[in-house]
Amino acid sequence: MIRILSMRYLRQKSFIHARRILSVAVFLVAVILGAEGFCDTQPPREKALSVNYPPDKTVMELGLLSISLTVPQGSTDLIIVNVNGNEKARIIPDNKIECFTIPISAGYNEIDVTAIKSSKLVGKNIIDVYRRSDLERAYKDPPAGFQKDYFHMKEHSQCTGCHILTPGKSDRKPVNIAAFPIEDMRIEEKILAKTSTCYSCHKNIASYPFVHGPVAVWSCLSCHDPVTEPKYSVKKPDTKSCYSCHVGQKEERLTKKYRHGPVNTGMCTICHNPHASEDPFFLVKSTWDLCINCHIDKGSGKHIVKIFPGKNFHPTRGTLDPLRKNRELTCASCHDPHASKTPQLFRANLGTGFMLCKKCHAD
Ligand code: HEC
Ligand code: HEC
Ligand code: HEC
Ligand code: HEC
Ligand code: HEC
Ligand code: HEC
Ligand code: HEC
Ligand code: HEC
Predict the structure, then answer these.
(1) pLDDT value at residue 336
(2) Among 257, 260, 270, which residue has the most ligand 6 atoms within 8 Å of its CB, making it the best to mutate?
């Protein structure tokens, strides 16, 4: 497909060239005639660009937004994409369809797609996208007028000329968690990606330092079922899909009396990105920031030791964890984010009361 595409690019390039010569000629004729009326009878100039995806006022869940534009040949030299006033992409169009992905943040995102031709503004499209979040309460409910757009619930004949929208066998590779070949996989990752029909549009979903096993091998259908309604939606609660592979964790946690609030309600993805992230364990934020989101008062460390020498309280970050090699001290150094034998959710190896302190302060 790539080769066919590049052939098409070449043809388009020479076509653009021919069109440029033609338009210069038309311009000269217009100047020579010097007739204003001549210009008035011209058909209106073709729009510099139009947005095929996303529709205006869409609600998104995760941090990546796909954009697809139609850019009539020769209409635009440069496309600048700003999100809430910050530049996120700068594209020199060389194809009639330009596809790319931009990051979006929680809440309101004003996407401004500006087309420039010979240093002049020739087109402007503004699309509003709202990224909702279960974690950050302020962004839980999208404003009135915004709604989810289920891309895969519609026919997209403008896309199928270049992309495959019917999943194939390789989109549901078996993923054996017990024998997951991390090392081999890293080498093969690129090859595996190319076998996926999802890759051509969703390739950025895995471009983070920490990638979840089934995503790294592009086995998207191990969680996204094409026959659900809406198509590809994942069963809730998350525990259903997560524990289908993480059987060990399920059994271990079931033996513990106390389960953490969000785990108890089956909301694994309030803390874990199911695909990939900047943080280990594919957390949606680093551990400390994640916990503080819901336990705002605990960051000070006042809760750990009531009477503390000096004016600061017990650290909760910014220093090494004595028990976990090369890892920062954080809330999870003392607490298990999932389940525990104690109501304060202490980690299994820590014990309680004074024993807990002694684990790190041996002397
Ligand atoms: C003229 C051919 C063509 C058409 C039509 C087309 N695309 Fe693309 N698209 C491409 C090419 C080529 C790539 C790059 C693929 C790659 O690198 O594997 C791409 C990549 C993408 C990407 C990933 C961009 C990135 O780099 O992050 C998305 C998302 C995408 N297309 C969405 C769409 C959607 C939605 C439609 C229909 C509205 C569409 N495309 C129609 C050719 C096309
Ligand atoms: C033509 C490009 C294209 C291909 C191929 C594609 N997707 Fe998508 N998909 C999109 C776009 C665009 C969206 C809208 C969300 C976004 O901005 O990424 C989307 C959204 C989704 C969603 C959210 C629900 C929805 O319908 O909006 C899921 C889940 C998803 N895709 C899974 C898949 C899987 C699994 C595959 C492979 C079997 C796949 N996609 C192939 C373009 C594509
Ligand atoms: C471990 C399970 C799992 C795997 C594997 C997985 N996903 Fe997802 N995906 C989810 C969950 C859970 C959601 C969130 C859906 C929700 O909560 O509504 C999601 C959401 C999405 C969305 C919607 C994003 C948005 O902003 O709304 C897209 C697109 C998507 N997945 C694409 C993919 C692609 C492509 C793959 C393969 C590389 C993949 N997923 C593999 C679990 C998974
Ligand atoms: C299709 C099987 C499958 C499903 C479903 C699945 N996982 Fe995983 N998960 C894996 C594999 C494989 C690994 C990599 C194991 C390894 O690194 O040894 C992994 C690793 C992880 C890790 C990192 C573990 C570590 O010790 O580094 C986390 C965190 C995780 N998954 C969370 C989830 C969550 C949350 C869900 C549900 C949204 C989920 N998984 C659903 C297969 C799955
Ligand atoms: C409150 C946030 C939160 C929730 C909810 C949550 N996790 Fe975690 N999870 C974490 C953190 C933080 C870590 C890293 C812990 C550490 O540093 O030791 C982690 C680590 C993991 C690991 C790897 C370490 C291990 O225990 O094996 C897996 C697997 C995992 N989580 C799966 C899940 C599943 C499945 C769910 C849903 C039942 C879930 N998590 C719900 C925050 C959470
Ligand atoms: C999405 C919100 C949310 C996040 C994120 C979250 N928690 Fe919680 N946490 C709760 C809820 C809800 C409860 C149960 C209600 C309660 O007792 O306050 C709870 C209870 C607890 C408890 C037991 C409280 C008690 O009363 O004994 C501890 C300890 C705890 N969380 C630690 C953490 C740590 C550590 C993290 C980060 C890994 C974290 N929480 C992240 C919502 C959250
Ligand atoms: C050095 C160990 C340690 C660290 C680090 C730590 N805690 Fe605690 N945490 C404790 C102890 C000890 C208790 C029990 C205090 C008590 O019973 O008075 C506790 C209790 C709690 C409770 C439940 C009791 C209450 O006061 O409501 C929550 C919630 C909690 N911690 C959250 C956090 C969060 C969030 C972080 C990270 C910002 C964190 N903890 C970091 C040791 C720690
Ligand atoms: C997970 C390990 C861990 C646990 C459990 C823990 N601490 Fe700490 N504590 C630390 C670290 C790390 C520091 C900072 C040391 C540094 O920066 O040099 C610290 C610092 C202190 C200090 C300041 C003096 C010093 O040694 O630097 C006191 C006092 C203290 N902790 C008391 C306690 C008490 C009381 C408990 C039990 C409620 C406790 N700690 C539990 C890791 C822990």
Answers:
(1) 97
(2) 260
